[in-house]
Amino acid sequence: MGPSTSEYIFIRACIAFLHWIAPLSITVSIATFCYRPSRSEGFSLQGVLNIWALLETAFYIVVFLPLRRHLQKPASHPKLVPYEQRRQEFIRCMGTVPDLDQFLSKWFRDSPLSEIKRENIKEFLRWAFLDIDDIDETYEEEVEEYVQMIEKNRQRQFEPGRGNAVCIRLTFDEVNLLHRSLFWYLCVFVVDCSTSVRLFCHGFNYHRTRLRRFFSVFPLRPHNAIAPRESLSDILTYWHRPHNSKTRLPILFIHGIGIGLYPYVDLLREINKDLKGTDS
Prior knowledge:
With 280 residues, this protein is mostly helical. It has three domains: 5-71, no CATH class; 83-154, no CATH class; 182-275, no CATH class. The chain has helices spanning 5-35, 45-71, 83-95, 100-107, 118-130, 137-154, 182-201, 223-226, 265-275, and strands spanning 205-208, 229-230, 238-240. β1, α8 (223-226) and β2 form a beta-alpha-beta unit. This is Alpha/beta-hydrolase. The chain crosses the membrane at residues 15-35, 47-67, 249-265.
């Protein structure tokens, strides 16, 4: 997205449109069911829209709602490691934090330090190192030890009691799941397929997971079924361009969460172009 106001308005309008697809589809489906409009012979745009609204409604009810309910279930935590190992992990973590006050403030959702009191810190540590939600006397001495180590590092003590700060506890907090419409996933499917074709044309080879995992990705990726090369990982797919240079190091490119490799195709093409004719 560019810096202009018109582009910003366009993007916000697209977001609003995508956000309202589900409620509008449900409304249209209910209206269609209640009023049962007369059927017209041949192609009808209204008929296509009614069918798509029904698909969006079914996707919301059959897929999204059960998924949201499933994700609220308690997380499955790994078995606790012995005390000495936990203590060493805590010390290592402390050694990587240059500014403890800022670190704690961020984990407490940018709360002021005055609201992060002793009981707040204990609650955070119980989750972070013990995977427990409530007070367990078995581990309270250990939790107190960690609090004292933090206080020693900060060179000041926490206020007693509990403040208004609320810490982030990823495996205990509610999962705020935002609905994505079927139309959005169709857009992702088209972008993903076009990106894959472009990467293939630029000399990259796709390495898929095993065929039994074909339905583990949504939207489905046709190249996960037809690509001849198999990934070395059971869960990870990747694109690979053979590296033959004896004078240059290989490049490992890892992209972030988003629309996939689409924004980076031109960059990868330019890298290929720059290396063309060399011992790449």
